[in-house]
Amino acid sequence: MKIPVIILSGFLGSGKTTLLLTLLKASKARGLNPGVVMNELGKKDVDGYILQEHGGTIVEKLLDGCVCCSRKEELPKTLGLLLSRRPDVIFIELTGVADPEEIAKSLLEPSLSERLKLHYSITVLDAENVLEYGSRFSADKQLVRTLRRQLSSADLIIVNRSDLVEPETLWRIEKMASRHNAESEIVFTHYSEINLTPLLAGIIPREQHTSGPQRGRSDMNGTTLKRMNSLHGGQGATAVQEPESAQQASYSQVAAVTLTFPPEAASGIRMEQLEGFFREWGDSLVRAKGHVRLAGQDGVQLVQYAGNRCTWEFSRYPGQPYLVFIGLHLDEKQLTDRWSALFQQP
Ligand SMILES: Nc1nc2c(ncn2[C@@H]2O[C@H](COP(=O)(O)OP(=O)(O)OP(=O)(O)O)[C@@H](O)[C@H]2O)c(=O)[nH]1
């Protein structure tokens, strides 16, 4: 019996991990044993720790690069490790700059297609920012192409963070998304909350598996099933040799930089000081996240900077505080110099 795989894609900070947490909760409530492949651009595993805090999930991590291009060869081994722990369903959360179509193709490699099948490919959009991506990232043609492929390859498009925009913007996003993908279902969400019943339909615990036909995607959307089957070539499909252009990186100017706190910052940083530091980088900083100690407060905070907005929440992270910065044209030396200077101010 093949284990179903659900791919979660979408740009940085759009709400993929938020959706994953909901999916994990719903899976466990159905008696399923879910497994996760968590891919992060940075060397530090912020989202993996968030999952760990929610407990009871098998997670394999792929850090410091994108599983659709620079770390593509590691995917089969990572999935193999996950499968050895006998999950009933696998969620692959991609980095925000990954091309989900490349992952769908990887699942066709004979070593994987024998044991796994693509159940759903979901793309999450950040309603507040998605309409600006084309102009904002025009200098990175590969990234613009990847963001288009995130849209065009999705079985389901979730327009998330919809609480932050006017209805008129949602209408424009729907038009734009349907232009790129006429077949996908489009839903509008707040904190990635959707009806998960059709999505998880047909996924059952291993011990209930029989050799009979499985229900699932066809119950949800017949046209979607037809379209993804064309990528997967129906019965007995094998991976197709990719043209050279398809093997290039999914972005060219995005970089992740990890910053740690110097000894002078042992007593913590002020909230407004850190938020000011994020804003200093303007449009070049797309996403930041990490665990930090705030001056005058006990414990550690998880800070998330996404779509130019900052959120803070209590964290139990036990290690040394750090921050991951992800952006376009981020100059690592300039960033680390400014970071050090921040703690030398009187
Ligand atoms: N206002 C608002 N914030 C949201 C919503 N959904 C998620 N967020 C917040 O947006 C931030 C980013 O959400 P994540 O789920 O981590 O986004 P992501 O796509 O996994 O981010 P990366 O994996 O780093 O690319 C977090 O602080 C979330 O709490 C929403 O619908 N509305």
From TrEMBL:
<keyword id="KW-0547">Nucleotide-binding</keyword>
<dbReference type="InterPro" id="IPR011629">
    <property type="entry name" value="CobW-like_C"/>
</dbReference>
<dbReference type="Pfam" id="PF07683">
    <property type="entry name" value="CobW_C"/>
</dbReference>
<feature type="domain" description="CobW C-terminal">
    <location>
        <begin position="256"/>
        <end position="343"/>
    </location>
</feature>
<dbReference type="InterPro" id="IPR051316">
    <property type="entry name" value="Zinc-reg_GTPase_activator"/>
</dbReference>
<keyword id="KW-0143">Chaperone</keyword>
<feature type="region of interest" description="Disordered">
    <location>
        <begin position="207"/>
        <end position="242"/>
    </location>
</feature>
<dbReference type="Pfam" id="PF02492">
    <property type="entry name" value="cobW"/>
</dbReference>
<protein>
    <recommendedName>
        <fullName>CobW C-terminal domain-containing protein</fullName>
    </recommendedName>
</protein>
<dbReference type="InterPro" id="IPR027417">
    <property type="entry name" value="P-loop_NTPase"/>
</dbReference>
<dbReference type="InterPro" id="IPR036627">
    <property type="entry name" value="CobW-likC_sf"/>
</dbReference>
<keyword id="KW-0378">Hydrolase</keyword>
<dbReference type="InterPro" id="IPR003495">
    <property type="entry name" value="CobW/HypB/UreG_nucleotide-bd"/>
</dbReference>
<comment type="similarity">
    <text>Belongs to the SIMIBI class G3E GTPase family. ZNG1 subfamily.</text>
</comment>
